[in-house]
User: Which sequence fits this backbone?
């Protein structure tokens, strides 16, 4: 009996059709958000670019470049969402969801480029100050930049949280930061109007610093995803769910990872060592069902059952030399 029960530890995975349909709908909503926000930000950047040429404001140039970079982040994210909808293959057995992480790296590089270019232009203008023209239009462009970014930020954050896409939420927060840097351009315009020409490049440098802070946060977010980091509260929640499943004596381990904007789980539970193979399988299926329905954005779970007892028994002795501490 013990030998049969020990082999009942064969993992069982569950990925319901409903979850798959939900994932496809989430990707479709994400694509729609990206398309609309891309159009809004491109129009915003285009209007600002015209005023940059007319005014020569380096602060507005930095803001325009940042808005353009923010709009372009929609491109790699859209490609990632599209790839994530593809079915798993024998080579990519977990599917293509991790394409979002690759898109995140591209986004970080785009933010880095915008920071470097904005800072370079601001330093040049500090060394060679120039009069700002059309100050009123510069102020108007700053307000336009704030309005466009704040609208996009609200839209991305709302939908990103609803579909569980950390990349989309982070991109929304990025847009919100862009909005506040647009308001900072007003300071440069105000300074220029009061007869302080250096106010414009100084604000340009401040905007560059703000972009660097966004870069730090975005890089940290992508690093966490690449290292399979999750919120410890999710692990606690999974353990609580499993502990409440009838037949589960103890939860041995819980491992969670994000694949795109969906969670996947691998867990080990202990069941009575006298339990039949069929009964142990039923407990595993109940545990999967509870996890998938009670843990937000969990799309699939693999449950490994181990026999609990008898005292002194080591059911994994043959594997002892293969487990690293």
Assistant:
């Amino acid at each position: 009996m013990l030998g049969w029960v020990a082999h009942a530890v064969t993992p069982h995975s569950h990925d319901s059709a409903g979850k798959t349909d939900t994932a496809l709908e989430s990707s479709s909503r994400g694509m729609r958000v990206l398309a609309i926000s891309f159009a809004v930000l491109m129009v915003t950047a285009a209007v600002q670019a015209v005023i940059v040429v007319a005014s020569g404001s380096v602060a507005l140039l930095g803001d325009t470049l940042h808005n353009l970079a923010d709009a372009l982040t929609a491109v790699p994210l859209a490609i990632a969402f599209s790839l994530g909808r593809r079915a798993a293959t024998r080579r990519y057995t977990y599917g293509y969801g991790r394409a979002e992480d690759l898109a995140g790296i591209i986004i970080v590089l785009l933010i880095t480029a915008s920071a470097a270019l904005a800072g370079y232009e601001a330093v040049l203008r500090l060394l060679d100050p120039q009069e700002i023209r059309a100050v009123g239009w510069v102020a108007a462009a700053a307000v336009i930049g704030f309005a466009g970014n704040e609208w996009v930020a609200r839209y991305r954050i709302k939908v990103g949280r609803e579909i569980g896409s950390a990349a989309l939420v982070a991109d929304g927060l990025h847009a919100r930061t862009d909005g506040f840097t647009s308001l900072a351009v007003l300071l440069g315009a105000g300074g220029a109007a009061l007869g302080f020409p250096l106010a414009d490049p100084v604000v340009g440098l401040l905007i560059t610093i703000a972009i660097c802070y966004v870069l730090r946060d975005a890089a940290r977010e992508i690093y966490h995803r690449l290292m399979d980091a999750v919120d410890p509260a999710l692990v606690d929640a999974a353990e609580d769910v499993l502990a409440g499943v009838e037949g589960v004596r103890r939860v041995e381990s819980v491992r969670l990872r994000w694949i795109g904007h969906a969670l996947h789980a691998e867990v080990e539970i202990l069941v009575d060592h006298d339990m039949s193979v069929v009964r142990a399988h039923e407990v595993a299926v109940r545990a999967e069902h509870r996890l998938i329905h009670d843990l937000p954005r969990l799309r699939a779970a693999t449950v490994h059952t181990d026999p609990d007892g008898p005292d002194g028994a080591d059911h994994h002795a043959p594997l002892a030399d293969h487990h690293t501490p």
